[in-house]
Fold this protein.
Amino acid sequence: MVGIGIGPNNLSLAALAQPLTELGHLTADFYEQRPSFHWHPGLLIDGTTLQVPFLADLVTLADPASPWTFLNYLKSRERLFPFYFAERFHIQRADYDAYCRWVSDHLPGLHYGHQIDAVRWNPDRAQFDVDYTQLDTDGEAEALGRTHARNIVIGIGTAPHIPEPLKPLADAPTVPVIHSADYLLHRDRLLTADHITVIGSGQSGAEIFLDLLTHRPPGAEKLHWLARTPAFAPMEYSKLGLEHFTPDYTRYFHALPEPTRDRLVKAQWQLHKGIDTDTITAIHDELYRRTLHGGWPDAVLTPGVSVRTAGRVATTRVELHLEHTEQGTRSRLTTDAVILATGYRERPLDQLLAGLHPYLRRDSADRPRIDEHYRLVLDPAITRTGSNVYVQNAERHTHGVGAPDLGLSAWRSATILNALTGKNPYPLPDRTAFTSFGLPTQQSRATPHPAGEQRGTLVHLKK
């Protein structure tokens, strides 16, 4: 197995694969073009926490006895008792980053400073050829190489998304228009700006707005926070709502028709793009505190707004042309710095897999088809040899909102390893949610009920 990319998802796969390599069930090597592991370094703002519990580490939900759990990391650092008394279910992001780097530093088979250039099918070897460039410490090409594998796992993650109207400004060196992914790298410079605008209503936008607010003088905050969403809405965090991030829902979603899946992904934004209620509370508390001596803070929070166009004023200021969706009104806003908390998009696989284009099967929107085991649907000429290409965090269109969620990383890695080895090294439960998503079909009613499934009479009506 060759893994391409070493983010949390492929690091999870590497951690769960390690005992299998020791038993001789497979060989595994992972390649990453960066010089070392780092997880969103530009967003490790002091005090910010993960939006999933610490049990959503790299391995626990598939193998809680693994040596690579977060709790074992704490034990190795002699921090287990402090963590116990801290009573924290949601850990700080910086702690998660340090944990992942600890795993990365101790796992074998991880090759940093290696850029994967191409993946091709070699019918003579009945394997994939994987070409790479080894990079030096400055990121310059040092040597070329090639390896071979029966199975590929692509975990190249997502890339910061910059809206089209703001792309020219983001590339201009004299104007501070930066994506939230680089926030901490530019924070000192941003704080010197006279007026700052944050665009984006998700968790990152909220955390950055709060950080800026707490570091600006009362009465002279000079902050704007704009969002396309109709409200600065809380993330869906009810217990049953969270069951949309279970394997049960993932299986249900995967079995839906393609148009239904596409419609659902757009409608479920509040499941993963809302704001943690504690962050919303902290923002309101800070704004309220600044009214203590009368007056209002110089901070404008406006949802329901889109940026139509943008341009420079002189050489150092930005003019945003805004439109309010519900009012149908337009206005202009001049600001000295813009922070784009506009999220991330899955990195396209087309360039990396150009050599496999004749073998790829696609859906009606020309996206790769992906089966329930996270395998790209390829020509049988490849798959009948036992070779496959798996993907991690590139399957939202087929597996739903849980694709980028850290809580499903260990499950997906275990699913991949079970399918890849054919030995079921990580037995997984049949049921993971109290919610029954969808009605049972005639076929499912004819099969034995798994433990815990409802046994009442239910009539299935076909349209």
User: Anything to note?
Assistant: Confidence is low (pLDDT under 50) at residues 446-463. Residues 196 and 337 are 5 Å apart (CA to CA). The chain has 14 helices and 18 strands. Residues 8-22 form the longest helix (15 residues).
